[in-house]
Design a protein that fits this description.
With about 375 residues, the chain is mainly alpha-helical. Among the domains are: about 90 residues, Arc Repressor Mutant, subunit A (Orthogonal Bundle); about 100 residues. About 55% of the residues lie in helices and about 5% in strands. The chain has 15 helices and 5 strands. Strand 1 and strand 2 form a beta hairpin. Helix 7 runs antiparallel to helix 8 and helix 8 runs antiparallel to helix 9. The longest helix has 21 residues.
Length: about 375
């Protein structure tokens, strides 16, 4: 902050207080005389310094021009790491030359830095320039000062742009898409109107040509959030990143309940949660999720018999082979009934038939 205001200057590798009379006169506070003990301490200045790191960062950001703030806010919408093509999509009323100059200014002021080629994460657009905030706190301070309705609009716009740019490989960006659709949903309002912008022909003057504005309803944002949360959860589950899988499935399940989804759809999400808990050796939670899924499936007359058999098998396996995982061993009529169904109602060899059915279903879900 002191450097940005010109109070501290670097001379020959050392920092000194500026001798600019105009700056020093602004620091003078004639309202109260200085204490006697401070008269001879010429290096003490009556500065109203912020008392938190966030306050210091906010003060530095306040000194930026409107254009620099706009670019910084659009970058914060993307995340700590962001891409030039993404900025071109979000920034309005600024040509690409001005955008690049603004980015250079922000780099010089140490708000952001450009990632080295060998350390770059894969961007949605091939050979794109990648940048990141100097510190995650800078991004957080900038992001928290953006109005909620604008956050929703920009997150939705960026998610639509990501879907377009990653067509055919969206699974590589499932986490990002889930995040941006979730944030758009969390800040949604009935007036949300997303203006999708084509950036393919952006040359040097104004922003590219705009397509018809898209009115994203709350239901549509919910549907897309569930889709990508489920995809992200499946990826985490198959990578044995179980904590993330549980988190993604739980968030998707909450959205399914909020949107009054079909019981069978909710049951399948409970089953996914049960699989994730079982992978983590949390038998109590896995049993709870499988039991809930089974109850919902049994209420649907159109349910596939193989889905029921697979759930019965999961429950039977938990309560026999993995009994030592339980904190509280399940007992009572439902537990006995489900265990019996899982063992007795499978055609052919008990173990292999059950495993074959569940393996086929797992492979179908992974596709």
């Amino acid at each position: 902050m002191l450097i940005d205001q010109g109070m501290l200057v670097n001379q020959n590798g050392y920092w000194h207080i500026s001798q600019n009379e105009a700056i020093l006169s602004e620091l003078a506070s004639p309202a109260l005389p200085p204490e006697d003990t401070l008269i001879d301490q010429h290096y003490v200045l009556p500065l109203p310094l912020p008392d938190t790191i966030q306050g210091v960062l906010a003060a530095r950001i306040d000194l930026l021009s409107q254009v620099e703030k706009q670019v910084l806010q659009c970058a914060a919408m993307i995340g700590r790491t962001f891409w030039l093509a993404g900025l071109i999509e979000l920034v309005t009323g600024l040509n690409i030359d001005s955008l690049l100059k603004t980015l250079n200014v922000l780099i010089q002021r140490e708000f952001i830095t450009e990632a080295e080629a060998e350390k770059q994460v894969r961007p949605p657009v091939e050979h794109d320039r990648v940048f990141s905030f100097k510190h995650v706190l800078i991004r957080d301070v900038v992001y928290n000062n953006i109005p909620r309705i604008r956050r929703s609009q920009k997150h939705a716009q960026l998610a639509l742009w990501l879907e377009e740019k990653t067509a055919g490989r969206t699974e590589l960006f499932a986490e990002l898409l889930a995040y941006h659709y979730q944030q758009a949903l969390a800040n949604w309002s009935a007036s949300l109107l997303v203006n999708t912008t084509s950036t393919s022909e952006m040359a040097g003057s104004a922003q590219g040509s705009s397509t018809e504005p898209l009115n994203l309803t709350r239901q549509e944002l919910t549907r897309r959030s569930i889709t990508y949360l489920t995809m992200a959860g499946d990826q985490a589950y198959h990578s044995y990143y179980t904590i993330r899988a549980i988190q993604a499935y739980t968030e998707a399940l909450e959205l399914l309940h909020d949107s009054n989804a079909a019981p069978l759809t909710i049951a399948r999400m409970h089953e996914k949660l049960g699989d994730a808990f079982a992978q983590r050796a949390n038998a109590d939670e896995a049993w709870h999720e499988y039991s809930h899924a089974l109850q919902l499936m049994k209420e649907d007359p159109q349910v596939d018999r193989n889905e029921l058999l697979c759930l019965y098998t999961r429950l039977a396996e938990l309560s026999t082979r993995w009994l030592g995982w339980f904190g509280v061993v399940p007992f009572g009529r439902p537990a006995t009934e489900w265990r019996s169904c899982g063992i007795l109602h499978l055609p052919g060899d008990v173990v292999y038939a059950a495993n074959e059915i569940c393996q086929r279903r797992s492979e179908e879900r992974a596709c």
